[in-house]
Amino acid sequence: MNDAPTAKRLSARDAIDTLESVGSLSDFSPLTGTSVLVVDLDGARRLGRDIASRVRTKLRELPCPTIAIRRAPTRYVLEGDFDVLVRSDDDLEKTVAAAAAHPLAAATLVQLLRHGEKLSLHEALVAESLAYSVLQAGPEFSAWSAARGVPRVDATASAEPAVLVSRSGDRLDVVLNRPERHNAYSVEMRDALTEALELAAADSSLHEIVLSGRGPSFSAGGDLTEFGSRPDPATAHAVRSARNAARVLSHCAERVRAEVHGACIGAGAELAAFAAFVIARPNAYFELPEVAMGLIPGAGGTASIPRRIGRQRAAYMALTGVRIDAKTAVEWGLIDSIRSNGDTVAGRSVA
Q1: Hey, which residues does 346 pair with through a beta bridge?
Q2: Any idea which fold 121-347 has?
Q3: What is the pLDDT of residues 157-215, one digit of tens each?
Q4: Mean pLDDT of the chain
Q5: Which residue, 251, 327, 317, is CA-closest to 285?
Q6: Global pTM?
Q7: Where are the chain's structural domains?
Q8: In DSSP terms, which residues pair with 344 in a beta bridge?
Q9: What are the strands, taking DSSP E only, across the chain?
């Protein structure tokens, strides 16, 4: 890395002049320039169509996160083209700090989310796997792995199946079953979930597929004891191409209801977001912590979550790793309903 500043804060007018310069791509890069572009939109003038079009194109090309801050209620013509839109200095500082701390992962994330808007769900999952594989071999993930040390394997792990599957009439219950590990998403769980969903997708007589988790959490995300045990990145991508629960889930998503509670972290949030309907208990919370590890969401979240809450909020969640409570999740559309003791607390009701 170079010793250049990690963020440059510009007025809207200065940003336009800077972005239209020939060298803007190299000026805003985690390797050769500043790693985050920040633009203050307050007081910005109206733009002509030609200028707005050119700036919009350049914003999508920059190899770094672009963050706009707008405190005033007035909307600005280009605000939807930034990777993140924030409304306060506190949110701005949080986002900039997180992106600057892991610039390679942050740049990869926002580039993937930009392109993902134009991709089919299958194409978006392939792109995510490729990007995730590249970052697995990168210096930021290596540094995180070295700082964490050798993971401790839980010797008390249950001998029960990682996923329980049961059928009652036209309903199939698929239950994540590693409660002692908060349903950490292991290779065993991924493979068992993929198999269960393949059966469900192939059986049109199943009208209702309910995905839930045993224990205190729906899923606390990837099993950290398995991090670093991957094969080489190319093989890891090939494995995800063949054994991808997210892809199978997307094929039967219109029949899936996810019932989540407690921690919904990483894969726990990403997989649930594919379901046609997501019901959460009031204690549910959602996080995407991967960028702080030098990675990006890798269980389908760069495809599923933007389709629910939009690209800017997805980028904000993933860059900052911020915890989203159930109330905020239902307001954003990450979940559809909050249920407590069978009663709908918020969101639209479900039969």
Answers
A1: 338
A2: 2-enoyl-CoA Hydratase; Chain A, domain 1 (3.90.226)
A3: 667 999 999 999 999 999 999 999 999 999 999 999 999 999 999 999 999 999 999 99
A4: 89
A5: 327
A6: 0.90
A7: 8-101, 121-347
A8: 339
A9: 8-11, 37-40, 66-69, 84-86, 163-168, 171-176, 208-213, 256-260, 263-265, 277-280, 285-287, 324-325, 337-340, 343-347
